[in-house]
Every structure is written in C-alpha cells, then in structure tokens.
C-alpha cells in the first residue's frame, strides 16, 4: 500500500510507519463508513465520538452508571483531554488496515491481530497507549453510541436492531451535536481533531513520533 502522501506501508512492520497528519486528513476525509451503505466519512465518526465523550464523560450520571469501575477522580485529575483524544483517534488505524464489517471480522482472526497491532502503534505514537482500561471502555461505549446515532439519523435500516444495546433513543443534546457534525465542513472537523491530539500530547509531555528513521522528523509540539 502507498498512502496519499506517498508513504509505503509494510503491514508486517508498523514500527517503520511514517505517520503523517496530512495522510490522516486526506484518508479520513475520503474513507466511507458502513461499507458504503451510507455517505458518512470516517472523520465525522471520529469527531462525533470525541464530542460525545466531551459532552457526557463526567456530568451525565446515566452515562457513567454503565462504568461503575471508572474513578471520577481520575477523570477530574487531568484525563479529560486524553479521553476526548482517544475518541478522536480510536479508528485512525483504519486509514492503513481498513475496516472490516463485524459479521465478517469474526472469521478473520489474522486480520484482527494485524488491526490490533496497528491500533496500538498509532496510539503509542500519539502518547495515548498508557491510558487506563476504564477510560478505553468509555471510548468503546461512545464509539457504539456514535454508531447508533449515525445509523438512526441517516436512516440505516439496522438502527432499530442496535437501539437498545446502544443505550436507547437519541437525546436532544445528541440530536443537536449530530446536526453540528453533519453540517461542519470536513476540513474544519479534522482541524479540530488535529489540534486536540497535538495539544493533548503536549499536555502529557509526549513527543509525537512521525518517523522511526529520522530524528528531524520527530517533533516536540
């Protein structure tokens, strides 16, 4: 595989990846979710997931009740930015390895292994790999909630099938944030995501590693 910016990808060597934010922008802006069933780009899903976490992660008691093992003190002690960053970044690895539909994925264990390795590589480069399991569970919840909101709002026929598992019907706040997500220009969504990822890395005193081979391509934000 060659990325939009011309970087060659060796799927057996994620450590040799030249991680390029411009590749992230181009690929997430053009990658369509739901196997093409809906006109909904990956960047919109990433932004929606992050914003659901921003809106819900502390104050919504109903939301937090799903994860009683999460220590609210951990969230209040500076983990809000990494949590939102995880929401923004949780599917960035898909620009390299793609996204396989769930029904097929369970038959492809080798693909799942590759996917997990690349997801870990991206999160490590962004400084998000040390985030606690409980916070990652919150991201999984928000990811699934975003899935339902997207499907319901865009008229996917499978939306009613996952409504209960996803937490029930959409709230007014969720309807409003989806509307913002749909109306915002894709470039504006990515700009916000990129700024947050870089600011979070700086707050964690982490260098975002763009290239494993050249010290001049490792930047301290």
Task: Provide structural commentary.
The chain has helices at residues 21-30, 42-56, 61-64, 72-89, 94-97, 102-105, 109-125, 133-154, 159-162, 172-183, 186-203; strands at residues 208-209, 218-219. Helix content is 58%, strand content 2%. It has 221 residues and is an all-alpha fold. A hairpin with an 8-residue loop joins strand 1 (208-209) and strand 2. Residues 74-78 and 213-221 have low confidence and may be disordered. It has a two-stranded antiparallel sheet.
Quick description:
The protein has 221 residues and is mainly α.
Give the tags.
mainly alpha, Hypothetical protein af1432, two-stranded antiparallel sheet, 2 strands, globular
Q: What is the topological layout?
A:
Elements: H1 21-30, H2 42-56, H3 61-64, H4 72-89, H5 94-97, H6 102-105, H7 109-125, H8 133-154, H9 159-162, H10 172-183, H11 186-203, E1 208-209, E2 218-219
Antiparallel strand pairs: 1-2
Helix pairs in contact: 1-11, 2-4, 2-8, 2-10, 2-11, 4-8, 4-11
| CATH fold topology | Hypothetical protein af1432
The neighbouring-strand order within the major sheet is 1-2
**Amino- and carboxy-terminal Cα gap:** 29 Å
The CATH superfamily is: Hypothetical protein af1432
Strand content: under 5%
Regions with little confidence, pLDDT below 50 for 5+ residues:
74-78, 213-221
Using the CA coordinates, give the radius of gyration: 17 Å
Broad structural category = mainly alpha
């Amino acid at each position: 595989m060659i990325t939009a910016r011309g970087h060659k990808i060796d799927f057996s060597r994620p450590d040799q990846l030249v991680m390029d934010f411009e590749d992230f922008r181009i690929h997430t802006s053009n990658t369509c979710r739901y196997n093409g069933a809906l006109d909904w780009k990956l960047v919109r899903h990433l932004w929606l997931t992050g914003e659901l976490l921003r809106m819900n992660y502390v104050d919504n008691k109903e939301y937090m009740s799903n994860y009683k093992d999460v220590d609210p003190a951990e969230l209040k002690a500076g983990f809000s930015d990494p949590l939102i960053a995880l929401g923004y970044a949780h599917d960035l690895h898909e620009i390299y390895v793609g996204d396989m539909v769930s029904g097929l994925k369970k038959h492809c264990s080798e693909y799942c292994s590759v996917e997990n390795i690349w997801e870990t590589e991206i999160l490590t480069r962004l400084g998000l790999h040390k985030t606690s399991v409980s916070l990652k569970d919150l991201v999984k919840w928000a990811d699934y909630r975003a899935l339902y909101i997207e499907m319901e709002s865009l008229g996917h026929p499978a939306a009613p099938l996952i409504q209960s598992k996803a937490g029930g019907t959409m709230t007014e706040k969720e309807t409003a944030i989806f509307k913002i997500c749909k109306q915002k220009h894709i470039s504006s969504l990515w700009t916000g995501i990129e700024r947050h990822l870089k600011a979070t890395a700086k707050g964690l005193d982490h260098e975002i590693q763009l290239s494993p081979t050249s010290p001049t391509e490792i930047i301290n934000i």
